[in-house]
Amino acid sequence: MSVLFSPTCNRNDWKKRQKLLKKVRTFFEERSILEVETPSLSRACGTDPHLDFIETLESPPRYLMTSPEFHMKRLLAAGFGDVYQITKSFRHGETGDKHNSEFSIVEWYRENWDLEKLMQETEALCSLVLEKPIKAKRTRWIDAFKNYAGVDPFCQNQSCFIETCQKHQVPIPEYHKAFSREDWWDYLMVMVIEAFLGKEQPEFLTDYPPSQAALAQIHIDQEGYSWGKRFELYIHNIELCNGYQELTDPIEQKNRFQKDIQTRQNLEKPIPAIDQNFLDALHHGLPYCSGVALGLDRLFMLALHKKQISSVLLFPDDRA
Asked: What is the pLDDT of residue 288?
């Protein structure tokens, strides 16, 4: 008889996970943040070219949400104030030791908060769940490339990226001649840089290129470079969350959506319906806010000292 009928997380560990989940919910309740519940299926979807969504076969199609952010920001625009949600999100084709195509997240938004304040709250939540103080160092995205990969991501000749692969003894991508600069950024982040992030101590990666922060506000540094107000937290090389100081300009957001659509067309990826309800909410008025989505399965992996995400799930992709 096949063992695939059985869960990959044992009963004792599942009970521990449920206790951790209660801690997360209590964390937000004690801060008077309103719990909400938004659709998992929607008539529109995010346009991010780096994310692959799952759509239904009905016509017109609906989409399993890669994140509840559009719906939650609509609630902010409707006057709900600070909100959080514990929910499932979905990504096509993401399966592995740290990935499952269906996964649990907690996402929350804080009005009148900047990114630094939200990073501190993220540290507080992780400290509670992991039962140890989490104080992460801050590393700018460009400095991660320079310090960990030994390359300037804006180098004039992209041959520097090939040299970086050779230096770190990672494979040169088969189709690298067709790579854009951003393709190289993504490749080196996964193949080289992530092995250093959060290795010695928790680490926030901050200040991303605008093209890698599609829903974030942009700021210009003293040298005249533009950066997206975005952060990710890494602990023991595991990426836990993605946060933005949220873009509130509906015209700029629509332009970014259209650029994403063009990129998806160039990559021959499926084209989702743009969320007009979300754009209408921005026109109505989204308050100044910051928001973050944190992967609960990965956080619970760390808390329970597990090496694979399947150890904290009952039925991962291969047993679902």
From this structure: 98
Count how many Cα atoms sit within 13 Å of the Cα of residue 89 in the half-sphere of its side chain. 24
What DSSP character marks residue 194? G
Q: Which residue has the tokens 């093209």?
A: 211
CA distances to 59, 158, 245, 307 from 219, rounded to whole Å, are 41, 26, 11, 37
Query: Given this model, what pLDDT does residue 2 score?
Result: 72
Instruction: Place domain 3-136+198-319 in its CATH homologous superfamily.
Output: Bira Bifunctional Protein; Domain 2 (3.30.930.10)
* Maximum pairwise Cα distance, the chain: 65
Angle subtended at Cα 56 by Cα 53 and Cα 59, rounded to the nearest 5 degrees? 125
Q: Residues with Cβ < 8 Å from 303, sequence gap 6 or more?
A: 16, 20, 129, 130, 131
Closest CA to 292 of 240, 235, 254: 240
Average pLDDT over residues 67-96: 96
**Contact assessment for residue 45 and residue 275, using Cβ atoms and an 8 Å cutoff:** yes
- What percent of the residues of the chain are helix, what percent strand, and what percent coil, each to the nearest 5? 40, 20, 40
- pTM score over 0.85: yes
b vs e for 70-82, b when ≥16 Cβ sit within 10 Å of the residue's Cβ?
A: bbbbbbbbeeeeb
CA distances from 187 to 24, 44, 162, 173 (A): 33, 29, 11, 8
In the chain, what is the straight-line distance between the N-terminal and C-terminal CA atoms, in Å? 17
Residue whose structure tokens are 């992709």: 317
- What average pLDDT does range 281-290 have in this prediction? 98
CB 129, CB 24: distance < 8 Å: yes
